[in-house]
C-alpha cells in the first residue's frame, strides 16, 4: 500500500512537465505562500487518484525544468500509517545512496508524535542540462477531525546548480535554517474543493 502511495506520487511528478494555465486549487490552498521571504505561487495541481490531491508552488518567474525552490502539498483524503510512510521514504533515499554519494537522509519526530520530518540530500548529473544537488524537507502529518482521517505530505525542495561538491557544501550550510522554516510553517486548513461538473 505504501509503495503504491509513493508510486502514485512519482507518476504524478512525471506528468508535471510545465506550469499549467488556470490552475485549479483542489485543497483550498490557493497561494501565494510566503516562506523564508520567498513568495510561492500555485503552478500545478492534479488529482492522481480518488483520494490523492497534489498542488505544487514555485517562486514567481521560475519553471519546473530549472527551479531553485519548490513546495508540494500531497493530501490524502484517507487514513495512512505515518510510520510506514516515513519508513518508505527513508528506504528510497538509502537505496539511492548506493549510486549517489551525496544522498543522505535524517528523520526527526515532533514531541507529540503527530508529525515526522524526513530531510535529505540527493544529486543529479544529467547528460543534458546542469548538474545539481537538491535538499528536501518532507513533513508528514496526520489529521483526525473525529469523523474523517486524512494525511498530508508537505515537501520543500531547494536546488543548487553547478559543481556537485560546491553545491552540496552550500546547501549543507542552509540545512538548519531551511528545516526550521518548514517545521515552523503554519499549515493552512485543508479542504478538498468541490470541482465543477466536467472537471
UniProtKB/TrEMBL annotation:
Keywords: Signal. This is PsbP C-terminal domain-containing protein. Residues 1-19 form the signal peptide. The keyword Signal applies. It comes from the Bacteria. The lineage of its organism: Bacteria, Pseudomonadati, Bacteroidota, Flavobacteriia, Flavobacteriales.
Amino acid at each position: 500500500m505504501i509503495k503504491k502511495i509513493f508510486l502514485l506520487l512519482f507518476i504524478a511528478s512525471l506528468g508535471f512537465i510545465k506550469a499549467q494555465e488556470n490552475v485549479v486549487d483542489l485543497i483550498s490552498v490557493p497561494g501565494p505562500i510566503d516562506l523564508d521571504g520567498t513568495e510561492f505561487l500555485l503552478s500545478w495541481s492534479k488529482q492522481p487518484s480518488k483520494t490523492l490531491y497534489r498542488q505544487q508552488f514555485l517562486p514567481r518567474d521560475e519553471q519546473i525544468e530549472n527551479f531553485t525552490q519548490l513546495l508540494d502539498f500531497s493530501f490524502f483524503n484517507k487514513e495512512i500509517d505515518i510510520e510506514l510512510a516515513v519508513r518508505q521514504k527513508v528506504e528510497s533515499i538509502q537505496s539511492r545512496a548506493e549510486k549517489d554519494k551525496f544522498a543522505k537522509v535524517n528523520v526527526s519526530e515532533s514531541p507529540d508524535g503527530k508529525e515526522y520530518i524526513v530531510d535529505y540530500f540527493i544529486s543529479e548529473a544529467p547528460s543534458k542540462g546542469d548538474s545539481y544537488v537538491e535538499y528536501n524537507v518532507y513533513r508528514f502529518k496526520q489529521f483526525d477531525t473525529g469523523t474523517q482521517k486524512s494525511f498530508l505530505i508537505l515537501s520543500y525542495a531547494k536546488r543548487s546548480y553547478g559543481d556537485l561538491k560546491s553545491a552540496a557544501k552550500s546547501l549543507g550550510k542552509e540545512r538548519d535554517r531551511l528545516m526550521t522554516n518548514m517545521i515552523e510553517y503554519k499549515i493552512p486548513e485543508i479542504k478538498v474543493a468541490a470541482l465543477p461538473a466536467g472537471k
